Amino acid sequence: MKNRIIDVQNVKITISKEESDDYICITDIAKVKSNSARAADVVRNWLRNRGTLEYLSVWEQLYNPAFKVFESEHFKKQAGLLTFTPSVSEWIEKTNAAGLYVKRGKYGGTYAHKDIAFEFASAINPVFKLFLIKEFQRLKEEENNLRQMEWNAKRFLSKNNYLIQTDAVKNYIIPHRDLKKDPQWIAYAEEADIVNVALFGFTAKAWREMNPELAKKNNVRDFATIHELTVLSNLETHNAHMIREGKNKEERFEVLKEIAEYQLNILSTAEQIKMAETCDDRTLFQPVL
């Protein structure tokens, strides 16, 4: 996922998504206490503290089965010594820690799991920590609302357009079959899979077999992109129309496959053009220093 940036008391804080967890750039947080050039030193000094090492060790033992507890003890024994100046990279390498990581390049710095980042902020500035938590929660609420809207849109498109196709199957395919030998649900599944294979490249059954846990509460269409669902809507409409025309499955599949490839390419190209225009606009209005 793309990095997100929140503004906390005029300090830009970068948040990165790693798998299912949020990691916050504590180098950005450190700028509250020092300037950008010395922010890394603030993080290093924080890591020297025994209380910090105790907290990190307990967090890792709770959430990271691969954490090397024995190695972490060496760090804690040296805490407080003037010669003890550990780096985050050294801590990660020797203990196999997962709560911190170092990123290079753009948006570079030390990133910490949100639990650890809030603890770091508390050590730097307790008041700033409160504002950080408030802005972080606001961001998560916005993301949750957006996900809910997208999910509702997906389900609406999937369910309502599926009705168009199932109605066509009911009226134009099932009446011509021996329902005792060929139950209605088989006819529905076959028609759905014509569209699934044309769009996704695999059947719903194949997806369920590959994703047994997800399939308990979801289907493949729940994980489709907005572009795919838009094309899916069109494919189901086209399929229903071709069923009424009496075209066989092979003919319909070839047509649907061509439509899917063409429309996905059109939507993807349009999105790329929009992104390029947005970047050009941002460049155009950059202030001259």
UniProtKB/TrEMBL annotation:
Residues 132-159 form a coiled coil. InterPro entries: KilA/APSES_HTH, KilA_N. It comes from the Bacteria. Residues 2-139 form the KilA-N domain. Keywords: Coiled coil. Pfam families: KilA-N. The keyword Coiled coil applies. This is KilA-N domain-containing protein. It comes from Enterocloster hominis. The lineage of its organism: Bacteria, Bacillati, Bacillota, Clostridia, Lachnospirales.
